[in-house]
Amino acid sequence: MDRWQYFLVLAACLITTAPLEFVGSGVYRRPRRLALALTPALAFVVWDLIAIAAGVWDFSARYLVGVRLPGAIPLEELLFFIVIPLCGLLTFSAVERLLAIRPRGRAGKEVKK
């Protein structure tokens, strides 16, 4: 079971935020926005690859399924840099949409209930 922990955490993040696609502005239906959100994560992938090559850090095989990509980066680590920004964007989009539909009074102030 330990081998699947990283995958399970990523899956839990995706499952938890998946319904937000229907609350927010449709992250999956806006591929340009999604691509822009994921692009900065590439810097961290490069950082990871450099650190792995330099021996600065490694990943415990106990918590990985064993698939290593070029540069010895574990599959789960690469997925992390896709899943977490995606979940963040889904959350942001839903909160942004929900705040935009709240009733407002004069001068843009919230209506107190």
UniProtKB/TrEMBL annotation:
Describe the location of the Lycopene cyclase domain by residue ranges.
21-92
Please give the InterPro entries that the UniProt record associates with this protein: Lycopene_cyclase_dom
Q: Which UniProt keywords apply?
A: Carotenoid biosynthesis, Isomerase, Membrane, Transmembrane, Transmembrane helix
User: What transmembrane ranges does the database entry give?
Assistant: 6-28, 35-57, 77-99
Q: What is its main location?
A: membrane
Q: In which pathway does it act?
A: Carotenoid biosynthesis
- Name of the protein: Lycopene cyclase domain-containing protein
**Species annotation:** Nocardia kruczakiae
Q: What is the lineage of its organism?
A: Bacteria, Bacillati, Actinomycetota, Actinomycetes, Mycobacteriales
